[in-house]
Amino acid sequence: MKLGLGLYRDILTSENVRFAKQCGATHIVAHIPGEFAKGKKIITSDRAKAGFGYSDGDDPIWSYEGLRDLKRMVNAEGLELEALENFAPAHWYDVLLDGPKKRQQMEHLKRILRDMGRLGIPIMGYCFTIAGVWGRVEGPYARGGAKSVGFENPEQTPIPAGMVWNMVYDLDLFDAENPKGAVGPVSPEEIWGRFEEFLGEMIPVAEEAGVKLALHPDDPPLPSLRGASRLVYRPDDYQRVLDLNPSPANTMEFCVGTLSEMPDANIYEMVDRYSRTGRIGYVHFRNVKGKAPNYHEMLVDDGDTDMLRVLQILANNGFDGVLIPDHTPLLLCDAPWHAGMAYALGFMKAALKMIL
Ligand SMILES: [Mn+2]
Predict the structure, then answer these.
(1) Quick one: pLDDT band at residue 88, thresholds 50, 70, 90?
(2) What is the pLDDT of residue 287?
(3) Residue 32 burial (CB count, 10 A)
(4) Whose C-alpha in 48, 67, 164, 184 is 20 to 30 A from the C-alpha of 132?
(5) C-alpha 219 to ligand 1 mean position (Å)
(6) CA 255 to centroid of ligand 1, rounded, Å
(7) Gap from CA of 259 to ligand 1 centroid (Å)
(8) Tens digit of each residue's pLDDT (9 = 90 or more) over 92-107
(9) Contact 140/43 with Cβ under 8 angstroms?
(10) Total domains present in the chain
(11) CA 28 to CA 206: how far, in whole Å?
(12) How many A from CA of 157 to the centre of ligand 1?
């Protein structure tokens, strides 16, 4: 197994890639949408009523040249770019919403996969979700009062028009105070139908490009969120995704944190069952206390899950891909995000040495 670090759009810098290297990581996952960095504070809870902020469809990083330069920047520090994480909502909102621009947007996503293939970026992580990661709160939930995020069964408001994936894609349409309509409701049949169509078109392109698609489970794992049904929120749901298309390019962005949040989930059984399939793209290695709809994110050694046991199961089943910490609580110092990540990476590095 290999150690990686996920970097958000605002912190995709040579300096942070070097930081990852200093922590012992060999791989980078570039999380391109989202504006999660605000000064030194980087945390993935909602910002007022605008979710994770505005999704900029014109960001030049998505062009062939932009991705080429990103890969060059990572390689220049001696690391590999393992994956891109998440399409920009601005690029595929009508794929998720079954809207009029779906065809055009699907072609654009295919172009991104082909560019990744030409550049040798192996994995495209994504989450096929309409409500996205909505409703998180932040507070001193982790050990010693370390600031972290959680989900505390909030009252669910409809998704305002102009928003999808918990980001704003249309500034003219979006109005947080006086929504110009709402997205949804979306039934389970509708969301699975849209997903099946998406996979059916994208997987052959991914195969041809030599790229894997890796699906993240729905976080929080609830049957529906803000009126929109979810895909992967129960232990068996990933199996349905794998069975929909048996291609080795149809893989999982295996988020141990989200899977452990699922009510009735035995995380060790799930890790065992799904790592046996050989279809884990890469792993989000994160610990949590509680289950949906009430849980909090913890430091890697301090949640409900024995992460060493998880790693041992992955090793026993031959997983040899990349693990990243996903997110971590912020540690009290001048560089809270970096300290949290360094802590998680140090734990993971030692754990890998113990089991391999
Ligand atoms: Mn995750």
Answers:
(1) very high
(2) 98
(3) 20
(4) 67
(5) 8
(6) 4
(7) 9
(8) 999 999 999 999 999 9
(9) no
(10) 1
(11) 20
(12) 23
Look up residue 227 and give its amino acid. Answer: G
Closest Cα partner for 252 from 266, 223, 232, 272?
Answer: 232
**Structural domain boundaries, residue 317:** 2-355
Helix residue ranges, H only, 6-122: 14-22, 64-76, 89-97, 102-119
Residue 243 DSSP SS3 = helix
Q: What is this structure's pTM?
A: 0.95
How far does the centroid of ligand 1 lie from the alpha carbon of residue 33, in Å? 14
CB 36 within 8 A of CB 167: no
The tokens for 312 are 């041992």
Separation of CA 325 and ligand 1 centre (Å): 9
3-state secondary structure of 324: strand
* Cα of 153 from ligand 1 centre, angstroms: 19
Closest to 89 in 3D by CA, of 157, 174, 152, 153: 174
**pLDDT on residue 263:** 94
C-alpha 258 to ligand 1 mean position (Å)? 6
> CA dist 96 to 38, 166, 175, 304, Å?
28, 12, 20, 33
Cα of 178 vs centre of ligand 1, distance in Å, is 32
Average pLDDT along the chain:
94
Q: Which tokens hold the place of 278?
A: 């050989």
pLDDT of residue 23: 98
Asked if residue 143 lies in contact with residue 297, where contact means CB atoms within 8 angstroms, the answer is: no
Q: Give the Cα separation of 272 and 264 in Å (integer).
A: 16
Cβ pair 207, 122 in contact under 8 A: no
Task: Say how many Å lie between the CA of residue 65 and the centre of ligand 1.
Answer: 28
Q: Ligand 1: distance of its center to the CA of 313 in Å?
A: 19
Question: In the prediction, which pLDDT does 35 show?
Answer: 62
From the number of C-beta atoms within 10 Å of its C-beta (0-12, 13-18, 19+), residue 326 rates as buried
CATH number of the domain enclosing 193: 3.20.20.150
